[in-house]
Amino acid sequence: MSLKVLIAPLLVAAASLTACGQGTPATPDAAKSPASASPTAGAGAGASRRPGAIRSLRPVAKITSACALLTAAELKTLLGGASSRTAITATPKISDGDHECIYGTKTAKPFALIVTTSSTRTFTPQKSINAIANAANVKTRRVPGIGSAAVFYITDGGIGLIAAGKKSYGQTRTVIFSAPKVVPGRKFAEVARLVISRI
Fold first, then answer.
1. I need a surface site. Which of 44, 66, 131, 159 has the fewest CB within 10 A?
2. What are the boundaries of the signal sequence (predicted)?
3. How far apart are CA 194 and CA 189, in angstroms?
4. Long-range contacts made by residues 142-151, C-beta under 8 angstroms, separation at least 24?
5. Residues 130-160: pLDDT tens digits?
6. Average pLDDT of 1-27?
7. The pLDDT of residue 144
8. In angstroms, what CA-CA distances link 146 with 38, 143, 195?
9. What pLDDT shows up at residue 192?
10. Which of the pair, 100 or 50, is modelled with greater confidence?
11. Residue 195 pLDDT more than 90?
12. Are 6 and 157 in contact (CB under 8 A)?
């Protein structure tokens, strides 16, 4: 099953605020999140010049690319593989106005980042995250300290997903990151915290 097939219903649900039931439990370590905004907090202006460094970026006024918000090198660093020789690529895509970035190798693309925006005043970050949680059809876990609201869960197909939302530049902006469930929950939180700080 493709990642788009897994995530598309969530985006539709978030946009329409429809609700579904919940099912099986998510991993308990999803709520364990680091205290800093990134594992390399304190990296200065030269951080982007070092391989695997996490760049210091201010929130962007206009979202133009999910890949620009999280490079393949940054994802590799956050997931603990900065010293690996495996080449990871980031492939940008725009689908229905949402910005996507698919990360992986030539043979597998197991990681995805989606960034959505809504200028509808009544569509709050909490409503966005609630809609995503309700549409999950599995037990979800709220994750404190990431944006205005965040949720984590693992699908029946073994894909972990974290979604976080916040208000920025007059919009509700939502970040959705997915990866195989073998990735520790704290790593999902680190990725979401970094990207939400940039939007």
1. 44
2. 1-21
3. 8
4. 142/31, 143/30, 143/31, 143/33, 143/189, 143/192, 144/31, 144/33, 145/33, 145/193, 146/33, 146/189, 146/192, 146/193, 146/196, 147/175, 147/192, 147/196, 148/124, 149/125, 150/189, 150/192, 150/196
5. 999 999 999 999 999 999 999 999 999 999 9
6. 34
7. 97
8. 12, 7, 10
9. 98
10. 100
11. yes
12. yes
Helical ranges in the chain per DSSP H: 3-16, 66-69, 72-78, 125-135, 185-198
Q: Which residues contact 81 (CB under 8 A, 6 or more apart)?
A: 88
Q: What is the pLDDT of residues 167-188, one digit of tens each?
A: 999 999 999 999 999 999 999 9
d(CA 124, CA 6): 23
Residue 44 identity: G
* pLDDT, tens digit, 9 for 90 and up, residues 55-101: 999 999 999 999 999 999 999 999 988 778 888 999 999 988 899 99
What's the length of the chain? 199
Both tokens assigned to 74: 């940054």
CATH class (in words) of the domain with range 3-39+61-198 = alpha beta
d(CA 10, CA 135): 6
DSSP helix/strand/coil, 132 = helix
For residue 117, what are the β-bridge partners? Answer: 173
Sole residue written with tokens 């999140």: 33
Judge whether 102 and 111 are in contact, CB under 8 Å: yes
- Residues 133, 33: Cα–Cα separation, whole Å: 19
Domain ranges of the chain: 3-39+61-198
